[in-house]
Protein backbone atom coordinates (compact mmCIF):
# COMPACT_ATOMS: atom_id res chain seq x y z
CA UNK A 1 0.00 0.00 0.00
CA UNK A 2 2.83 2.37 0.86
CA UNK A 3 4.31 1.73 -2.58
CA UNK A 4 1.00 2.68 -4.26
CA UNK A 5 0.73 5.88 -2.19
CA UNK A 6 4.24 6.91 -3.24
CA UNK A 7 3.36 6.38 -6.91
CA UNK A 8 -0.05 8.13 -6.81
CA UNK A 9 0.99 10.96 -4.47
CA UNK A 10 2.91 13.05 -7.04
CA UNK A 11 0.12 12.52 -9.59
CA UNK A 12 -2.57 13.80 -7.14
CA UNK A 13 -0.36 16.72 -6.12
CA UNK A 14 0.23 17.64 -9.78
CA UNK A 15 -3.50 17.48 -10.55
CA UNK A 16 -4.28 19.68 -7.54
CA UNK A 17 -1.78 22.31 -8.65
CA UNK A 18 -3.15 22.18 -12.20
CA UNK A 19 -6.71 22.71 -10.87
CA UNK A 20 -5.58 25.73 -8.80
CA UNK A 21 -3.85 27.24 -11.84
CA UNK A 22 -7.01 26.77 -13.93
CA UNK A 23 -9.16 28.48 -11.27
CA UNK A 24 -6.74 31.39 -10.97
CA UNK A 25 -6.75 31.85 -14.77
CA UNK A 26 -10.56 31.79 -14.91
CA UNK A 27 -10.80 34.31 -12.08
CA UNK A 28 -8.39 36.66 -13.85
CA UNK A 29 -10.50 36.71 -17.03
CA UNK A 30 -13.96 36.58 -15.45
CA UNK A 31 -15.98 39.80 -15.78
CA UNK A 32 -15.87 41.78 -12.55
CA UNK A 33 -18.11 44.50 -11.24
CA UNK A 34 -16.42 47.83 -10.74
CA UNK A 35 -15.64 48.40 -7.11
CA UNK A 36 -16.77 51.84 -6.04
CA UNK A 37 -15.75 52.95 -2.57
CA UNK A 38 -18.42 54.58 -0.39
CA UNK A 39 -18.91 58.29 -1.07
CA UNK A 40 -17.45 59.19 2.33
CA UNK A 41 -14.14 57.62 1.30
CA UNK A 42 -14.05 59.43 -2.02
CA UNK A 43 -14.39 62.93 -0.62
CA UNK A 44 -13.18 62.71 2.98
CA UNK A 45 -10.18 65.04 2.58
CA UNK A 46 -9.36 67.84 0.18
CA UNK A 47 -5.91 69.44 0.07
CA UNK A 48 -5.13 73.03 -0.92
CA UNK A 49 -1.74 74.70 -1.45
CA UNK A 50 -1.57 78.34 -2.64
CA UNK A 51 1.91 77.83 -4.12
CA UNK A 52 2.10 74.24 -5.48
CA UNK A 53 -1.63 73.75 -6.10
CA UNK A 54 -3.63 73.81 -9.30
CA UNK A 55 -7.42 74.12 -9.42
CA UNK A 56 -7.42 71.63 -12.31
CA UNK A 57 -6.20 68.96 -9.85
CA UNK A 58 -8.67 66.82 -7.96
CA UNK A 59 -7.30 67.95 -4.61
CA UNK A 60 -7.81 64.49 -3.12
CA UNK A 61 -4.14 64.08 -2.09
CA UNK A 62 -1.36 66.32 -0.75
CA UNK A 63 0.60 65.51 -3.94
CA UNK A 64 -2.11 67.01 -6.19
CA UNK A 65 -3.60 69.88 -4.19
CA UNK A 66 -6.02 72.52 -5.37
CA UNK A 67 -4.77 76.11 -5.51
CA UNK A 68 -7.73 77.93 -3.92
CA UNK A 69 -9.98 77.46 -0.93
CA UNK A 70 -12.90 78.63 -3.09
CA UNK A 71 -12.42 75.64 -5.41
CA UNK A 72 -12.19 73.28 -2.44
CA UNK A 73 -15.42 74.70 -0.95
CA UNK A 74 -17.15 74.09 -4.29
CA UNK A 75 -16.08 70.39 -4.27
CA UNK A 76 -16.71 69.28 -0.70
CA UNK A 77 -19.72 67.61 0.87
CA UNK A 78 -20.74 67.43 4.54
CA UNK A 79 -18.23 65.49 6.60
CA UNK A 80 -15.22 66.55 4.53
CA UNK A 81 -12.05 68.20 5.81
CA UNK A 82 -10.22 70.84 3.78
CA UNK A 83 -6.50 70.91 4.63
CA UNK A 84 -4.87 74.26 3.90
CA UNK A 85 -1.10 74.24 3.43
CA UNK A 86 1.06 76.99 4.84
CA UNK A 87 0.81 80.23 2.89
CA UNK A 88 -1.24 83.29 2.01
CA UNK A 89 -4.57 82.75 0.26
CA UNK A 90 -5.46 86.02 -1.46
CA UNK A 91 -6.55 87.36 -4.82
CA UNK A 92 -3.03 88.67 -5.44
CA UNK A 93 -1.02 85.58 -4.41
CA UNK A 94 -3.06 82.63 -5.69
CA UNK A 95 -6.20 84.06 -7.32
CA UNK A 96 -8.35 83.28 -4.28
CA UNK A 97 -12.01 84.28 -4.41
CA UNK A 98 -14.05 85.35 -1.40
CA UNK A 99 -17.69 86.33 -0.92
CA UNK A 100 -18.59 89.82 -2.13
CA UNK A 101 -21.83 91.70 -2.73
CA UNK A 102 -21.86 90.15 -6.26
CA UNK A 103 -20.83 86.54 -5.51
CA UNK A 104 -21.17 84.10 -2.66
CA UNK A 105 -18.41 81.69 -1.67
CA UNK A 106 -19.97 79.61 1.09
CA UNK A 107 -18.46 77.14 3.51
CA UNK A 108 -20.97 74.24 3.43
CA UNK A 109 -22.49 72.79 6.59
CA UNK A 110 -20.56 70.12 8.48
CA UNK A 111 -17.25 70.84 6.75
CA UNK A 112 -13.95 71.31 8.57
CA UNK A 113 -11.36 73.82 7.36
CA UNK A 114 -7.97 72.98 8.86
CA UNK A 115 -5.05 75.37 8.48
CA UNK A 116 -1.40 74.40 8.89
CA UNK A 117 0.53 75.10 12.09
CA UNK A 118 4.16 75.48 13.10
CA UNK A 119 5.79 75.28 16.49
CA UNK A 120 7.03 78.63 17.81
CA UNK A 121 8.60 78.50 21.24
CA UNK A 122 6.57 75.47 22.24
CA UNK A 123 3.30 76.97 20.98
CA UNK A 124 1.50 75.89 17.80
CA UNK A 125 0.69 78.94 15.64
CA UNK A 126 -1.47 79.13 12.52
CA UNK A 127 0.53 79.63 9.31
CA UNK A 128 -2.34 79.53 6.81
CA UNK A 129 -3.72 83.01 6.15
CA UNK A 130 -6.79 84.23 4.27
CA UNK A 131 -6.08 87.82 3.18
CA UNK A 132 -8.70 90.15 1.74
CA UNK A 133 -8.60 93.54 0.03
CA UNK A 134 -11.04 95.26 2.37
CA UNK A 135 -14.32 94.62 0.54
CA UNK A 136 -14.86 90.86 0.89
CA UNK A 137 -16.07 88.40 3.52
CA UNK A 138 -13.31 86.07 4.73
CA UNK A 139 -15.47 83.07 5.64
CA UNK A 140 -19.17 82.93 4.90
CA UNK A 141 -20.92 79.96 6.51
CA UNK A 142 -23.94 78.20 4.98
CA UNK A 143 -24.27 75.98 8.06
CA UNK A 144 -22.47 74.78 11.14
CA UNK A 145 -18.83 74.12 10.30
CA UNK A 146 -15.48 73.81 12.05
CA UNK A 147 -12.45 76.03 11.45
CA UNK A 148 -9.07 75.40 13.06
CA UNK A 149 -5.69 77.13 12.87
CA UNK A 150 -6.39 79.96 10.48
CA UNK A 151 -5.63 83.69 10.25
CA UNK A 152 -8.17 86.03 8.60
CA UNK A 153 -7.01 89.56 7.83
CA UNK A 154 -7.91 92.50 5.59
CA UNK A 155 -11.62 91.75 5.06
CA UNK A 156 -14.67 93.99 5.30
CA UNK A 157 -16.14 91.25 7.49
CA UNK A 158 -13.83 88.49 8.69
CA UNK A 159 -16.58 85.97 9.45
CA UNK A 160 -20.28 85.83 8.61
CA UNK A 161 -22.32 83.13 10.31
CA UNK A 162 -26.02 83.88 9.87
CA UNK A 163 -28.24 81.33 11.66
CA UNK A 164 -25.24 79.02 12.12
CA UNK A 165 -22.83 78.16 14.89
CA UNK A 166 -19.38 77.54 13.51
CA UNK A 167 -16.79 76.05 15.83
CA UNK A 168 -13.59 78.11 15.81
CA UNK A 169 -10.30 76.96 17.36
CA UNK A 170 -6.91 78.61 16.92
CA UNK A 171 -8.49 81.20 14.60
CA UNK A 172 -7.04 84.73 14.56
CA UNK A 173 -9.26 87.47 13.12
CA UNK A 174 -7.30 90.71 12.79
CA UNK A 175 -7.45 94.00 10.86
CA UNK A 176 -10.93 93.34 9.50
CA UNK A 177 -13.94 95.65 9.35
CA UNK A 178 -16.10 93.51 11.64
CA UNK A 179 -17.22 90.08 12.75
CA UNK A 180 -20.94 89.61 12.19
CA UNK A 181 -22.83 87.01 14.24
Key phrases:
181 residues; alpha/beta; single chain; 13 strands
How would you summarize what this structure contains?
The protein has 181 residues and is α/β, with parallel strands linked by helices.
Fold topology:
Elements: H1 2-29, H2 39-42, E1 45-48, H3 69-75, E2 81-84, E3 87-89, H4 91-94, E4 106-107, E5 112-115, E6 117-120, E7 123-126, E8 128-131, E9 137-141, E10 146-153, E11 157-160, E12 167-174, E13 178-180
Parallel strand pairs: 1-2, 2-5, 3-8, 4-9, 5-10, 8-10, 9-11, 10-12, 11-13
Antiparallel strand pairs: 6-7
Report on the structure:
By secondary structure, this protein is an alpha/beta fold. The protein contains four helices and 13 strands. Strands 1, 2, 3, 5, 8, 10 and 12 form a seven-stranded parallel β-sheet that branches. A four-stranded parallel β-sheet has the order 4-9-11-13, with helices on one face. The radius of gyration is 27 Å and the shape is globular. Residues 32-42 have low confidence and may be disordered.
Our count of helices gives 4
Query: How many structural domains in the coordinates?
Result: 2
Q: What's the overall geometry?
A: globular
Task: Show unreliable segments.
Answer: 32-42
